[in-house]
Amino acid sequence: MYTLGEFIIENKDHYPYSIESLLRLFSSIKLASKEIHKEVNKAGLTRKIIGSSGKVNIHGENQQKLDNFAHKTFVESFKNRDVVCGIASEESKNIIIIEKHVNNNISEDKYIVLIDPLDGSSNIDVNVPIGTIFSVYYKKKKSISKNIITIKDFLQVGRQQVLAGYIIYGSSTILVYSIGNGVHGFTLDPSIGAFYLSHPNIRFPNNEKIYSINEGNYYRFSYGIRKFIKYCQEEKENRPYRARYIGSLVGDYHRNMIHGGIYIYPKTASSPKGKLRLLYECNPIAFLTEQAGGLATNGNFPILDIIPKALHQRTPFICGPKNIVNKLKEFINYEKK
Ligand code: AHM
Ligand code: MG
Fold this sequence. Notes:
Helices cover 30% and strands 23% of the residues. It has two domains: 4-199, Fructose-1,6-Bisphosphatase, Chain A, domain 1 (2-Layer Sandwich); 210-336, D-Maltodextrin-Binding Protein, domain 2 (3-Layer(aba) Sandwich). It is of the alpha+beta class. An eight-stranded mixed sheet has the order 4-3-5-6-7-8-9-10, sandwiched between helices. The chain has a five-stranded mixed sheet with strand order 12-11-13-15-14, with helices on both faces. The site of magnesium ion has 4 residues, from strand 5.
């Protein structure tokens, strides 16, 4: 029975940077996620934490009380460790600079964290799994001044991530991460508050059977995507695939990575740039996907090679086992001819 901390130390040779700073970073992620686990688990008992906060967030969506709580909890937790110098969150329009680092001369081993504190939060009221998604970089070495954190530190290409992961608050709370040596999952034992290794070295199974897409948008999809959906439904070879979509990225992705399936959120007529955010939703999931032997693409390019231009930029998103993602790309390419 490995705890997360023991596992990180055991695998320290795979991490090219300071293991102490990684442990401190994880300590803030674990603490915040346990706070959220506690609130999510009593959500049915108290109206204080479920429902809308009455505010609209920067994306024009109704902010849930738990969105706000999760954002504040993670930001506070990162601030209280000496390893994070800047944070970007789905719930904050601007980057958050941690003041003490600005005054204290930032060394280059400080982290930049981008986070979706509570993804799928519209599902809180109905007990569907929700999640936290995080993406971590080192502060960019060529910043104008060592002392200044700028937006450029956050607009790094996804392949530069040093750590990516998510926490799923479902039938159990599981933390899944990668530092570039595979994908590993740890389940929280709430009775003692420790995360134990439960899913070592997760890989996408090759006998893919699931497709996940919001088919309510069918007539808003491009021709290639619609043809692919029909391909998944065809009675041929090992098809039809099973359709599974709960509308909570972490929940849909976690199931697909364990059971083998493709997740698709393409551009639609009403969201021509896609819905999901590149920096704190797609990049971390794409990093895990490649580490688990799969592919993540916007349809044309690997997600991890997209050069970000804005903090809250959106992108079409496709990820899953190589075979089925490549199949979908054939339909997209055919459409272009
Ligand atoms: P959120 O960041 O506002 O929670 O939205 C992201 C969510 C994803 O979890 C999910 O995959 C997607 O939006 C579902 O969107 P839709 O309801 O359009 O299918
Ligand atoms: Mg989100």
